[in-house]
Amino acid sequence: MTHKRTILITGAGTGIGRDAALALAARGHRVLATTLTQAQAEALLANAQATGLALEAFKLDVTLPEDRERARDLPIDVLISNAGVGESGSLAEVEVDRIRQTFEVNVFGALELVQIVLAGMIARKRGTILLVSSIAGRVPVPFLMPYGMSKFALSAAGAGLRAELDELNCGVHVSLIEPGAIHTGFNQAMLARKYAWMGEQSYFSSVLPRLQAREQRSFRWLEATSTRGIVACIVKASESRRPRLRYVSPAWQGAMIRLARMFGV
Predict the structure, then answer these.
(1) 224-264 pLDDT, tens per residue?
(2) What does pLDDT average to over the chain?
(3) What is the DSSP string of the chain?
(4) Residue 141: which pLDDT band, with cuts at 50, 70 and 90?
(5) Domain 6-262 sits in which CATH superfamily?
(6) Out of 147, 195, 203, 247, which one is annotated catalytic?
(7) How many CB atoms lie within 10 A of CB 116?
(8) Residue 147 catalytic?
């Protein structure tokens, strides 16, 4: 029987985070499901109760020091750092403040929470950190780089932190969870966001209709229709005694990325 663990997950109000929180609760773990807003926490709690699942839900905005501090004294066995935001647009013209805010959530807020939780894990000599990155953090995707850059940084941080903790031999492991294109609404909203501000003044105004049509075709072909695969990766990594560095789903999207990099695409 799998050892039951205390698992804190951020960004559990929607999509992958919500589905992972419910799946882990269904397996008997103590799940501390945190969300951006209190309203999301209450909705998640009601959802769990309606399906007979027990979990704890509360607000934790990773960019707020007072929210991050709520995790300091919790006996966390597994931290799933899933909270994130998406931003799209061309690096030739996107406002740098948009990129800066994306890094504030996806990289800096995540790392600050990781450091808080790590203090307890290192003291107890056990624990797992799962950083939810993205396949977009392994290959440059045009017009998605404000988000992709943050995930490249997060993936590098995860691999580096894993190697550092291995030097301590402290029983704490770090893994990267790398979802591909999954139909949760997150990708669609992120891709569409640039069209709200790329107007007639944009370098790309004359080709926007073509770009939009190509994106719609690509995502209809690429997208997985369910979070089931990536949630299974999160569950497996959460329950593993020594999780591997990377977990990718859908697997075929990960294979495409590897082939593209092999052939220099």
Answers:
(1) 668 899 999 999 999 999 999 999 986 755 555 655 555 55
(2) 90
(3) -PPP-EEEESSTTSHHHHHHHHHHHHTT-EEEEEESSHHHHHHHHHHHHHTT---EEEE--TT-HHHHGGGTTS--SEEEE---------TTTS-HHHHHHHHIIIIIIHHHHHHHHHHHHHHHT-EEEEEE--GGGTS--TT-HHHHHHHHHHHHHHHHHHHHHHHHT-SEEEEEEEE-SBSSSHHHHHHHHGGGT--TTSTTGGGHHHHHHHHHHHHHHH-BS-SHHHHHHHHHHHH-SS--SEEEESHHHHHHHHHHHHTT-
(4) confident
(5) NAD(P)-binding Rossmann-like Domain (3.40.50.720)
(6) 147
(7) 19
(8) yes
Q: Region 39-52: what's the mean pLDDT? A: 96
Domain spans, the chain: 6-262
